[in-house]
Design goal:
The complex is a heterodimer.
Chain A (H helix, E strand, L loop, with lengths): L1 H4 L10 H15 L6 E6 L19 E6 L5 E3 L2 E3 L1 H12 L26 E6 L5 H26 L13 H10 L4 E3 L8
Parallel strand pairs in A: 2-5, 5-6
Antiparallel strand pairs in A: 2-3, 3-4
Helix pairs in contact in A: 3-4
Chain B lengths: L19 H15 L20 E2 L6 E7 L6 H4 L4 E4 L2 E3 L3 H12 L9 E6 L5 H13 L4 E5 L15
Parallel strand pairs in B: 2-5, 5-6
Antiparallel strand pairs in B: 2-3, 3-4
Classes of the chains: A alpha/beta, B alpha/beta.
Chain lengths: ~190, ~160
């Protein structure tokens, strides 16, 4: 019949692909796939007044890490390389000098830390230290704690600390964190080798 | 009379491309969903340091960035080469940091404010003097949660070589 012949002609969709490609290329160019990652830290709150009597910490419980403006490390009055730092820090935290820590495997050296709870790592850098070096030192110190926690988790719970689910294993993580509390103290930077 | 065969019959039929838009749209939607618009134009060059103990920044809406590094080549005539701070789209001085933090905090909703994280994206060659100044300003502004933006090294041994 005549009516059938007057049906609406189909719209040409040939250029659809072109339009879609154009949009696709726009998103390809503007997209940034990088996920932001980094070392999380917490700063101490600012206080105008100088604390009059700071808590006294025994010398043996402080692990001093100094970084100079040439990015060299001085740890416990000893010049070391960055690759040795993690091991040194772990030995210090895990030392168990007073024998109160039942899970520690340290050497019980009398001049080193009493127990993980009392052990404090003190970090001081120069204003001329490079940021790259600073991050590396921070990384090694955090890694020392994480490695100890990992070992502890393996022994106590038989599973990996790093692989734990933050929601599911909430209590276990909390328990491990109290076993090896992270105590890294940062002093105001020096200004010697500007 | 010789029969002349039609050429048409021999020609290969055209490949059906009607599904092409579908494929392209699929890709397009993937990129649209996965995309995060670049918020700022980097005016300083940032070569991030490397670290292994890194954590992901979960919610981007809670993160505020502070960039530090030497100005890029095209800005060097004007601003020199010494490392500078960049906040949003402009170069800034150390005194601007505190007000910047306060301003950014105002933008966030009431319940999100305590969880605000400052991400320091600095070049690894920047001296700690500048970073310490930033940190002091952040402490004064009560922005205590910070994150040193760094990359996962492809080869862990490279972390200990003297070059980096």
């Amino acid at each position: 019949m005549a009516r059938n012949k007057r049906a609406i002609p189909e719209i040409n969709a040939g250029s659809m692909a072109d339009i879609a490609f154009l949009l696709l290329i726009f998103y390809l160019v503007t997209t940034t796939m990088d996920t932001d990652k980094g070392i999380n830290r917490k700063l101490p709150p600012w206080d105008e007044e100088i604390i009059e009597d700071p808590p006294i910490i025994k010398e043996r419980n402080i692990f001093t890490v100094l970084v100079n403006s040439n990015d060299q490390l001085l740890v416990e009055d000893e010049y070391i390389e960055i690759s040795q730092l993690r091991e040194k820090a772990m030995e210090f935290i895990d030392n168990n000098g007073d024998g109160s820590c039942t899970y520690c495997k340290g050497f019980k050296i009398p001049t080193s830390a009493d127990n993980p709870d009392k052990a404090v790592i003190s970090l001081q850098n120069d204003r001329g230290t490079s940021y790259g070096m600073y991050v590396k030192v921070q990384n090694e110190l955090v890694a020392a704690y994480e490695d100890l926690r990992e070992k502890y988790a393996e022994e106590e719970y038989g599973k990996s600390y790093r692989g734990m689910d933050p929601e599911e294993d909430k209590d276990i993580i909390k328990e491990i964190k109290t076993a090896y509390p992270q105590k890294i103290s940062e002093a105001e930077p020096l200004n010697i080798g500007g | 009379m010789a029969v002349i065969k039609k050429k048409k019959d021999k020609a290969l039929p055209a490949v059906n491309t009607s599904a092409l838009p579908d494929i392209v749209f699929m890709l397009l939607f993937f990129f649209m969903v996965a995309t995060v618009m670049r918020e700022v134009d980097l005016k300083v060059s940032v070569d991030k340091p490397q670290a292994t103990e890194i954590q992901k920044l979960e919610r981007k809406s809670l993160v505020t960035y502070i960039y530090a590094g030497s100005p890029r080549a095209k800005f060097q005539d004007k601003f020199g080469r010494s490392p500078r701070i960049q906040l949003n789209d402009a170069f800034a001085t150390i005194d601007d940091v505190q007000s910047f933090v306060v301003q950014e905090r105002e933008k966030k909703s009431e319940e999100d404010r305590p969880m605000m994280t400052m991400s320091i994206k600095a070049d690894k060659s920047v001296k700690m003097g500048l970073i310490s100044d930033i940190k002091l300003q952040l402490r004064k502004a009560q922005a205590l949660k910070i994150n040193y933006s760094s990359l996962q090294p492809k080869n862990v041994d490279a972390l200990y070589s003297s070059e980096n």
